[in-house]
Amino acid sequence: MKISSFFFLFSIFVSTISFGQLLDNRAGNAFTDKPFFNSEFVQMNKIQELKGQYTYKKPGETMKETKFFYEYSFDPLGRLTSTFETRTDDGSLDTTWNRYFYGEHNQLIEHLQGDVNGFTSMRYEYDDKDRMISQANTRSYKDSLGNDQVTILNKETMSYSEYDSQVKKTIHNSFGNPYLEEWSYHNDLGYLTSKIQRQIMTSTTYTFQYSYYDNGYLSEISKLKDTDSIPLERTTFSYDQFGNILEKKYYRNEIFVTEIAMLYNEKSMLLTYVITKDVPTGYLMILGFKPPKFYGEEIKETVSPIEIEEKNEQ
Known about the structure:
Blueprint: H1 6-14, H2 39-44, E1 47-57, E2 64-74, E3 80-87, E4 94-102, E5 108-115, E6 118-126, E7 132-142, E8 148-162, E9 166-172, E10 178-186, E11 192-199, E12 205-212, E13 218-225, E14 233-239, E15 245-252, E16 255-264, E17 271-278, E18 283-289, E19 293-294, E20 297-298, H3 305-313
Antiparallel strand pairs: 1-2, 1-18, 1-19, 2-3, 3-4, 4-5, 5-6, 6-7, 7-8, 8-9, 9-10, 10-11, 11-12, 12-13, 13-14, 14-15, 15-16, 16-17, 17-18, 19-20
């Protein structure tokens, strides 16, 4: 049996899998390079590591398991400390990794992002209200002789002005000159409803609009340029009745580009599959997670998506 529809594949998994409370999407960061796990949930359940293996499926072809994987690691406080990924999208092997370091108030103070050519360090400082006031970027690599080298890229600083329901942030470049102004607007309940960014030199503006479901979960983020009515980018989210994120859909100029579905084990309520579909081509990338490694304990492995497909063919 060949699977021709993303939703048909999705329904196969849903028949045996339900949903958990592992991910934190309050800022819309699910499956980005920013930490997006619920650290309290991870800490309470003593999760140390999540590791998944990729399965690919091209339209008209059967699913193909690979040796490529994605790995998330956590500290005993439930904070994401690193990710490591090996995969291929264009026929060549691509390896990327991230490491995260935190301050005494659990703010992210350094993010290392690496690849085969070296790594970039992004260091952050905060004020007494936990607002970011600087970001310094450096690049580390080995030269042609194998010697370690570091390039200081830039350092930006941020200043803030507060009003009744809005906050103005001004970002300054490495020379201390302001180049971007950002206004953040919140409703009476404290929910972020919009951000307006203005490029000072060109007066180009970008408006980010935030929408929510009745239960307060983030439903959509839209990005518009100047007075345009059609968003440059739009991301929507859906959840189950407990607030667990199920789908993330990304649109560019209102063209449906990417769909991501999150599936969770019905027993452990932990992440089991992440299915990513490139909508224009129909290409599927399935990340099937093994049972987590816990602090002081490990459990058996789950079945692969190919095994589930073969079971449903019988």
